[in-house]
Amino acid sequence: GAVVSQHPSWVICKSGTSVKIECRSLDFQATTMFWYRQFPKQSLMLMATSNEGSKATYEQGVEKDKFLINHASLTLSTLTVTSAHPEDSSFYICSAKTGGDYNEQFFGPGTRLTVL
Amino acid sequence: GQNIDQPTEMTATEGAIVQINCTYQTSGFNGLFWYQQHAGEAPTFLSYNVLDGLEEKGRFSSFLSRSKGYSYLLLKELQMKDSASYLCAVMDSNYQLIWGAGTKLIIKP
């Protein structure tokens, strides 16, 4: 149980275009979803936390108008990278957390974004 | 500030034992996680410690000392497939995960 999927697995796009990444919890309801970015040989960097039905909370330094997050249901969150540039090329990973006391986050397989 | 320290890289031999240490300073504590991450893949959960002591799960064990702000991940009977990065993460008082930079473990035959 506790499977999280992401789509697409990888995407190549031209500079200036927008890319949408989907994160789904397949067998549980995720009250909270997290979006991370990971550059090569670096650790995970939390970009934003989203709770179903409310606005995402962005970490300092993350542009909310550039990285649009929508968490419309308990099983789906989307991250849209608007007007992507080569410096946005990275590995984007989502994770989901159920409610309750246990604090484990379940990670999606990640999306490799390359902006040309 | 909040800080998680772990060694950048370690090398061990197939069949041996290796211990990866993690020290932390965070605003509050709601548990410590260890994750394994193979290159190009997302992290996978290994262990969760919230009380002091040793948690054993097959070939992997994790230890926590809250008073010392210290944890270690112990890997026994190392296999080549254990070559990966091992990430230490602490959940702070706001239930946010604070991540270490990860330890790259290289297993040699």
The multimeric state of the shown protein is heterodimer
Anisotropy-based shape of chain A = globular
Radius of gyration of chain B, CA atoms, in whole angstroms? 13 Å
Mean of residue pLDDT values of chain A: 89
The total strand number of chain B stands at 11
Total helical segments of chain B = 0
Note down, in words, how this protein is organized.
The complex is a heterodimer of chains A (116) and B (109). Chain A has 116 residues and is mainly beta. Chain A has no helices and eleven strands. Chain A has strands at 4-7, 10-13, 19-25, 32-38, 45-51, 57-58, 67-73, 76-81, 90-97, 106-107, 111-115. In chain A, the strands form two sheets. In chain A, strands 2, 4, 5, 6, 9, 10 and 11 form a seven-stranded mixed β-sheet that branches. The mean pLDDT of chain A is 89. With 109 residues, chain B is mostly beta strands. Chain B is built from no helices and eleven strands. In chain B, strands 2, 4, 5, 9, 10 and 11 form a six-stranded mixed β-sheet that branches. Chain B has a five-stranded antiparallel β-sheet with strand order 1-3-8-7-6, with no helix packed on it. The A-B interface holds A 34, 42-46, 49, 91, 93, 102-110, 112 and B 30-31, 33, 35, 40-45, 48, 87, 91, 95-97, 99-102.
